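Annex B. Sample input.
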Amino acid sequence: MKSILITGCSSGFGLETAKYFLEQGWRVIATMRTLDDNVIPPAPNLQLLKLDVTDQSSIAQAVAAAGDIDVLVNNAGIGWLNALEGTPIDIVRRIFETNTFGTMAMIQAVLPQFRARQSGTIINVTSTVTLRPLPLLSVYTASKAAVNAFTESFALELEPFNIKVKLVLPGLAPETRFGDNARALTPGALQFPEPYAPLGQAVIAGLMGEHEEFTRPLDVAEAIWRATTDDNAPTRILAGADAVTWSRQV
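Annex B, continued. Sample output.
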């Protein structure tokens, strides 16, 4: 039975991916910062672990408890929507600590076992916001674009060890908790500085409106499955109808 460790499984993409791989008969190590045994129904091949990707001791404990794994999915992330002037620098650091440095730290933790076995797959979930500039997403986009660049360069280091490295890029996902995660960072989240208020209201109206195309959590789970099982899959895999449309417009 193959094993997959997924970060950020309390909701959204991570939760759907954990369920998807369980249905395919994999051993799934579903991790989350605040452990909740009720998120996923118990299963013989399911292991729930507490994991904070910004805490080295938490990472070490989770990786040790998981044992040997075949696939690492770096999905844990923090959303943020605001002008740069409305984003305290400590919030910028927290976003990068989770979205960027947390991804790197998780990879460092599993690489020794992958390299020793000369096999393994690493999948980093970023975003299609990295494909074109969008207002009020500069900090979030920067944290994800850094992962894109890191991944494509870092993949070259692992070619001699037969380790695959892939990127999954979802589009707009209204069914996830992007806004809730942003609000959790600070009471001032989504409260724009006065000069940016008209722009902020317009952007939020656009996000909250009807969308003919968008990304479902299942789209991301299926993209991660492809990244895991298809040896001919490209390094960048788009997830969601809107993600595909966006890529054609770039």
